[in-house]
Amino acid sequence: MSRAMLTRMLLARSEIIDGTKIRQFRTENAKSDRSKCQICGDKIDQDEVRISRLDEDRGIDRWHHVHCFIVAAPDLDFHTRVENLQGFYRLSAMDQWRLVDAMEHRHECFDEEEEEDEDDDEDDG
After folding, report:
1. What's the confidence (pLDDT) of residue 2?
2. Using CA atoms, how far apart are residues 36 and 6, in angstroms rounded to an integer?
3. Segment 71-103, tens digit of pLDDT
4. How far apart are the first and last CA of the chain?
5. Helix, strand, coil % over all residues of the chain, rounded to 5
6. What is the pTM of this model?
7. Residue 11: is it exposed, middle or buried by C-beta count within 10 angstroms (0-12/13-18/19+)?
8. Does pLDDT of 11 surpass 90?
């Protein structure tokens, strides 16, 4: 391993942006359809954009659907822009745009959840 590569790796491990340990998070297109979302439990389809939060204790990625991650981002200690995700610039331009757009419109995700909760309450009553 080159000295420059080692230096970059050490810097990436320590970088904190907007209170987010950026080394804990990355994004990519799913390599297969075997991973499951840690929020909803559904499988993540092959080639679908997914976001991981590293489980540092176990050293494994905990994958999420984009929508599920965005809703849970504050609880996952993700407080920065999706452009700061490792792997973001390896995504296609269209996937990058979709990810940025989803994060910018995340308040709509919360609105949808509230509407679903209200519908559930009405059904129970």
Report:
1. 59
2. 32
3. 999 898 888 889 989 999 999 999 999 999 998
4. 64
5. 45, 20, 35
6. 0.73
7. exposed
8. no
How far apart (Å, rounded) are the C-alpha atoms in residues 115 and 78? 25
Q: Determine how β-strand 20-21 pairs with β-strand 25-29.
A: unpaired
Residues 80, 41, 94, 11, CA torsion sign: positive
Report pLDDT digits (tens) over 35-47.
999 999 999 999 9
Give the three-state DSSP class for 97: helix
- Phi and psi at residue 36, in whole multiples of 5°? -120, 145
DSSP state of 45: P
Coil vs helix vs strand at 80: coil
Burial class for 70, CB neighbours closer than 10 Å (0-12, 13-18, 19+): buried
Reported in sequence order, the residue ranges of 41-119 that DSSP labels E, i.e. its strands, are 49-55, 60-65
